[in-house]
Amino acid sequence: LKTEIMQKFFSHGSDGTAFQGNIKLWVRLLLPGVIKRVYNLQSKQLIKIFSRIFKAEEEKMLEDLEKGDVAETIANFFEDTHAINKTTKSKLTIYDVDEFLSKLTSMTKEDEQAHALRDMSKTCTVNDLKMLIRLIKGDLRMNAGCKHVLDALHKDAYEAFNSSRNIEAVINQILNLRKSHNLKGSLDVGATVGQPVQPMLAMPCKSIEIA
Description:
globular, mainly alpha
């Protein structure tokens, strides 16, 4: 069902006529755990920064963090804070979010990160900020992974990705097929020099002979 929903979106867009968005950008945001960006921000560091932004007690936020979802913790305290005039209607585009995340990867000093996150928070609804934190953590928690997204774009996309581990090459071929109006064309993506492959875990064996 999730693949079908995404397939419908990538085919007909949000208005039901035609998809006119940026597929590379959508895939980058839908699969933050696959197309990884490094932010140098761990959960407790995020709590430390946002406790200052919200003028909230860090210990209380850390206690709430024990429930296991830093994005929920930050969203809950964001909803209650009066230190920031949050927006009630979402105005952010995916381009705004992607640009912000790109800038955040270049920041290494905590003060710089805090300043950027404070400014971004002012443009966010509670749900916006929650999803932004999940993007930073690399897990949208929507129970839809690489297979759902890639299968929605092309029937062989996930298999091609597993063979190559090169998602950019897979997406580029899909875009070429779309340009030529040949959505069911084959994908030819294999292993390439310099592109790391996915290692397989060893299977436990009971004897040297089986191994």
